[in-house]
Amino acid sequence: MTLLEHLAELRRRIIISVLAIVVGAVVAYFLYDHILSFLEHPYCHVLKVNNVKQACTLQVFDPLGKLTNRLKISFFAGCGIALPVVLFQLWRFITPGLNPNEKRYAVPFVLGSLVFFAFGAWVALTTLPYALSFFQSVGGKGVGTFYALDPYVRLVMLMIVAYGIAFEFPVVLVALELTGVVPSRRLRKARRGAIVGVTLFSAIFTPSSDPISMFAMAVPMYLFYEGAIITGRVLKK
Predict the structure, then answer these.
(1) Which of 71, 141, 155, 235 has the fewest CB atoms within 10 Å, i.e. is most exposed?
(2) If we measure between CA atoms, which residue out of 8, 180, 191, 20 comes closest to residue 89?
């Protein structure tokens, strides 16, 4: 292909991805009540565990708050629904430039990216109730909590995205090993630096900034680091 043909192909793939996100957002808009109930679950769980006698409802302090949050949640959920389509379009765009050996790894890497992102989202939602309980205990027993819808939903979304991206760590490492950019022996020698780097990364990029969430990100990432070393050695052989 010429440069213009490559750009035309890229535009086509981007348009398909955007359309997939729009369709996903429309579907999520009509499933808004179910999605919001799912996002509220960590908060409701904390209230139930701590025997707090108050309704599990999020507050809105802006006349347009309900609409803007519905659109925001719909878009975020639409991106999640369209993620397989977006990754497939990315794969189809780069496939012509790969040799047969590289194409063999393309599908496993796309599927692996989806699985690890979903796993990261699950860990984020599982960890969030403990983070909320930590914040409540720090504030004192005499201080009640009424969460606003917008900051709460933003925190949940950031947690899902942060953990989802962080848990792509082993996919990136294995790809670097297979391409020869970072040999397995170098990763083995850099274990101490990896521990420090993973801990700093988790401390900086954990949206809730509490110790529970930080370790819930750091420990799996280091385990992924060790697993990537073994996986890279096996695949290279």
Answers:
(1) 141
(2) 20
